[in-house]
Specification:
The protein is α/β, with parallel strands linked by helices and about 700 residues long. β1 and β2 form a beta hairpin. The two termini are about 35 Å apart. Bound molecules: (S)-3-Hydroxyhexanoyl-CoA.
C-alpha cells in the first residue's frame, strides 16, 4: 500500500485513510492507493463494509492541480485514468461510505459520489469548483451529481462552482447523514448499520429518478444557462459544465462520462484554464515574501483604528469589523462621523436585504465599530489605518499626531494610493512602523490591498500587514514605494493610451467596447467616470512640477474636469448620465471637444482599428509592468497579474497582463512596442527587461521561476 493511503480495520469495517497533506489532493499514488485498498478489502472475507476518510484537516480537496500542466504538455493523462478507479469503487460488492470533513471538492466529491453512501460533519463543504480553474469536473461529477441532487442543483454547482455546506448538501441528497460527534466513529457505526441491515451497495450511476423528468430538466438547465450568461461573460467552462450535466439527462451513464471527458479535455487544453490555474497558484504565491519566513514574528492585532470616515475609511472599518476585530472609527466632527456611520449601516443593510448577512450578524459587526471624534482610546489600537484626504501635508500632520496618541509599537498604515510612503513616514520618529495599506474602492468589497513597503518598514510590520490582509479576507500584495506604486503607476499608462487613441481618432465608446469585449470589467473611460475624474486632476496639479518637459500628455481630461464634469457623481464625464442611472450615454459634446482639441494640437485623426486599441492599452501595461519588475517595485510578474485581476477588473481567464503577454509571445509584444516607440516617441521606449526576455525567447513566467 502506498504511504499516501492507509488501510486499517475496525472489526468488520475496513478504513481507508488518505494522507496527502495539506489538502489530500489526488496526487500520483493516491488514486492507485484507493484502488489497491478497495481491492484488498474486497479480497478480505472478514471485511463487510468500507469507510473512506481523509487524514488531517480535510477529505480530498480535488485533483492535484499541479498535475494539469503535465497533462496539457502531453507528459501525462490522468483525467481518463481516474474514472476506471472510481468504477472499481462504485462496483465494490461491499458497501462503501465516504466520511467527509473539511472539503470534498472536485475529484474529492467525485470520489465520495462513487462511494455508496456519504456522511459528513456539519462544518464540511462539498463542491465542484473546477470552473474556477477554467475546467469542468472530469471524473464523473457532472454525471453522478444530478443523479443524487437533481439537475438544478447539479448544474448550478458545476457551472458556478461555489461550495455547498454539508447541511444543505444533506437536504439536496448529496450527503446521507450529518455526524455530530467523532466523524470516523460515526462513519464506522453507519457502515455497521448498513451491514447489519443487509443493505446492498447503492450505486449512484444506477439512480435515475432525479433526472427522469425531461421537461423539468430542460427548465432547470435553461435557468442556469441564463444565470451563467449574465455572470460568466467570456468564460468557456461554465457553458461546457452545463452541457455535460445535460448529457447526464440524455445519455446512459457510461456515454455521459465519455461526453464529460471530451468536454473536460477541451477546457483543460484551452488558454483559459491555463490562465486560471496560474491565477489559483498566483493567489497563493503572492502571500510569500522572499526573505521573510512564514513564521516571522508578527504583532497581534487585537484592536484597530481608522482615521477618516469617508468612503474608503468606512469600507476599511467594515473590513476589520467583518473579521471580528474591534475598530475605532474617527472623524473630526459629529456630523462627519454620523455621515460615515450611516454609509456603513446602509452598506450592511443592503447585504442583509440580499440575504447574505443576517440582521444579528449586522448588529454584531456594528457593535464592533466604535465611533469617536477624539484620539482618547488610540493607545488601545495595535494598528491605525489613515484614510484622510489624499494630500501630503495633511497626511504628514495626521501621522505626526498619530505617533503622539498611539503606543510606540502600534503600526501606522496609510491608505494613500499615490503618495510617497517614506515622506509620510518622515513625519514620525518611527518609520519602521509605517507602511502603506492601499485598499481599492469600494474597500469593503474589493479583495486586494497593495502593501507598500517603505524604505524602513520593518520585516515584522510587513509580515503583520500580509497576515492582517488575509485575516480581513483580502489578498495582500507587497509592492515597493514609487509614485502610484504598482497598480496605479501601470494604470496611468493604460489610461494615457486610451486617451491618446481618442485624440488620434477613436471614439470613447469604441475604446471602452474593445476592452470590455476583451473581458475587462469596464472600459478605461467608463472606469474614469466611475472613480471620479477629479481625483486624477487634483493629483496631476499637485505633481505638475515633477512632469518632464516636452512629453506628450492627454489634452482632454483636464478640460472636461474644468467643465465640472467629474464623472458619474456629477452626471457627466467622458459620458453623460441620466439622473439616478449609471448607464453611460455617448456625449456629442465630448466628441466635439476631442476633435477640436486634436485639431488645435495638430494631431492628425485617422481610423483606429480595434486591434490597435487593444495593443496600445494592454502593451502599455505590460511595458510599464516590465520596468516595475526590473526595478524590484513588484516582486514577481504574478504579483502584477493578481493585482490587476483583483483590483482593476482584468479578466482572470486572461491570467493578468503579464501572463497575457506571455501567451501573445514576448517577441511579438516587444516588436509592437518598438513600432509604437517609432510612431509615438519615448513614452514607448521598451523596457530593457522586456527586450531581454523577448530576445532570449523567455517569458515573464520564466523570470518568476528564476526568482523563486
Ligand atoms: C479537480 O478536482 C478536477 C477533477 O474533476 C478531475 C479529476 C481527474 N492541488 O488554499 P490553501 C495547495 S480540479 C494541488 O492555502 P486553505 C495550495 O496551493 C481541483 N495543490 O489552503 C497551497 O500550497 P502552498 C478541484 C493544492 O486551507 C496548499 O495546498 N479542487 C490543491 O486556505 C494549501 O492551500 C479545487 O479546486 C490542489 N487541489 O484552503 C480545490 N488545493 O502552501 C482547490 C490546495 O504551497 N483548493 N493546494 O501555497 C482550495 O480551494 C483550497 O486550497 C482549500 C483549502 C479550500 C482546499
Amino acid at each position: 500500500m502506498s504511504d499516501l493511503v492507509q488501510l486499517t480495520k475496525d472489526g468488520e469495517i475496513a478504513v481507508i485513510t488518505i494522507n496527502n497533506p495539506p489538502v489530500n489532493a489526488l496526487s500520483p499514488g493516491v488514486p492507485e492507493g484507493i484502488k489497491e485498498s478497495v481491492e484488498a478489502s474486497i479480497q478480505d472475507d472478514a471485511v463487510k463494509g468500507i469507510v473512506i476518510i481523509g487524514g488531517g484537516r480535510t477529505f480530498i480537496a480535488g485533483a492535484d492541480i499541479k498535475e494539469f500542466g503535465k497533462m496539457t504538455s502531453g507528459k501525462k493523462d490522468r483525467g481518463v485514468g481516474f474514472n476506471p478507479i472510481l468504477k472499481i469503487v462504485e462496483n465494490c460488492p461491499k458497501p462503501i461510505v465516504a466520511a467527509i470533513h473539511g472539503t470534498a471538492f472536485g475529484g474529492g466529491l467525485e470520489t465520495a459520489m462513487a462511494c455508496h453512501y456519504r456522511v459528513a460533519v456539519p462544518s464540511a463543504l462539498v463542491g465542484q469548483p473546477e470552473v474556477k480553474l477554467g475546467i469542468i469536473p472530469g471524473a464523473g461529477g457532472t454525471q453522478r451529481l444530478p443523479r443524487l441532487a437533481g439537475v438544478a442543483v447539479a448544474a448550478e454547482m458545476c457551472a458556478v462552482g461555489n461550495p455547498v455546506p454539508a447541511p444543505q448538501a444533506h437536504e439536496a441528497g448529496i450527503v446521507d447523514k450529518i455526524i455530530d460527534g467523532d466523524l470516523l466513529e460515526g462513519a464506522v457505526a453507519f457502515a455497521r448499520e448498513l451491514v447489519a441491515a443487509g443493505k446492498p451497495p447503492r450505486k449512484t450511476c444506477d439512480q435515475t429518478d432525479k433526472i427522469s423528468d425531461q421537461a423539468a430538466n430542460q427548465k432547470a438547465l435553461a435557468a442556469v444557462r441564463d444565470k451563467v450568461a449574465k455572470r460568466a461573460r467570456g468564460l468557456m467552462a461554465p457553458g461546457k459544465a452545463i452541457d455535460a450535466v445535460e448529457a447526464a439527462t440524455k445519455l446512459p451513464f457510461e456515454e455521459g462520462v465519455a461526453r464529460e471527458q471530451e468536454l473536460f479535455k477541451e477546457c483543460l487544453h484551452s488558454d483559459q484554464s491555463k490562465a486560471m490555474i496560474h491565477v489559483f497558484f498566483g493567489e497563493r504565491a503572492v502571500a510569500k515574501v522572499p526573505g521573510i519566513a512564514k513564521d516571522h514574528p508578527k504583532i497581534e492585532i487585537k484592536r484597530a483604528a481608522v482615521v477618516g470616515g469617508g468612503t474608503m475609511g468606512g469600507g476599511i472599518t467594515m473590513n476589520y469589523a467583518n473579521a471580528g476585530i474591534p475598530v475605532l472609527f474617527k472623524e473630526i466632527s459629529d456630523e462627519a462621523l454620523e455621515k460615515g456611520l450611516s454609509i456603513i449601516k446602509k452598506n450592511y443593510a443592503a447585504t442583509v436585504s440580499k440575504g447574505r448577512l443576517t440582521q444579528e450578524q449586522m448588529d454584531q459587526r456594528m457593535a464592533l465599530i466604535e465611533p469617536t471624534t477624539s484620539y482618547d482610546k488610540f493607545k488601545e489600537a495595535d494598528i491605525v489605518v489613515e484614510a484622510v484626504f489624499e494630500e501630503m501635508a495633511l497626511k504628514k500632520k495626521v501621522f505626526a499626531e498619530l505617533e503622539k496618541v498611539t503606543r510606540p509599537d502600534a503600526i501606522l498604515a496609510s491608505n494613500t494610493s499615490t503618495l510617497n510612503i517614506d515622506e509620510i513616514a518622515s513625519a514620525t520618529s518611527k518609520p519602521d512602523y509605517v507602511i502603506g495599506h492601499h485598499f481599492f474602492s469600494p474597500a469593503n468589497v474589493m479583495r486586494v490591498v497593495e502593501i507598500v513597503r517603505g524604505k524602513q518598514s520593518s520585516d515584522t510590520v510587513i509580515a503583520t500587514s500580509m497576515a492582517i490582509a488575509k485575516k480581513i479576507n483580502k489578498v495582500g500584495i507587497l509592492v515597493g514605494n514609487c509614485r502610484g506604486f504598482v497598480g496605479n503607476r501601470m494604470f496611468h499608462c493604460y489610461q494615457r493610451e486610451a486617451q491618446f487613441l481618442l485624440e488620434e481618432g477613436a471614439r470613447v465608446e469604441q475604446v471602452d467596447k474593445v476592452l470590455y469585449d476583451y473581458g475587462m470589467a469596464m472600459g478605461p473611460l467608463a472606469v474614469g467616470d466611475l472613480a471620479g475624474l477629479d481625483v486624477g486632476w487634483r493629483i496631476r496639479k499637485e505633481y505638475k512640477h515633477l512632469e518632464p518637459e516636452g512629453i506628450r500628455q492627454p489634452l482632454v481630461v483636464d478640460q472636461i474636469c474644468e467643465m465640472g464634469r467629474f464623472g458619474q457623481k456629477t452626471g457627466a464625464g467622458w459620458y453623460k448620465y441620466e439622473a439616478g442611472s449609471r448607464a453611460p450615454i455617448p456625449d456629442p459634446e465630448v466628441q466635439k471637444l476631442i476633435e477640436e482639441t486634436a485639431a488645435k494640437a495638430g494631431i492628425e485623426r485617422r481610423e483606429i482599428s480595434d486591434q490597435e486599441i487593444l495593443e496600445r492599452t494592454l502593451y502599455a501595461l505590460v511595458n510599464e509592468g516590465a520596468t516595475i519588475l526590473a526595478e524590484g517595485i513588484a516582486l514577481r510578474a504574478v504579483d502584477i497579474d493578481m493585482l490587476y485581476i483583483l483590483g482593476y477588473g482584468f479578466p482572470a481567464q486572461r491570467g493578468g497582463p503579464m501572463w497575457y503577454a506571455d501567451t501573445v509571445g514576448l517577441k511579438n509584444v516587444y516588436e509592437r512596442v518598438c513600432e509604437f516607440e517609432k510612431q509615438h516617441g519615448s513614452l514607448w521606449a521598451p523596457s530593457p527587461l522586456l527586450k531581454e526576455l523577448a530576445e532570449s525567447g523567455k517569458t515573464f513566467a520564466d523570470y518568476d521561476a528564476s526568482k523563486a
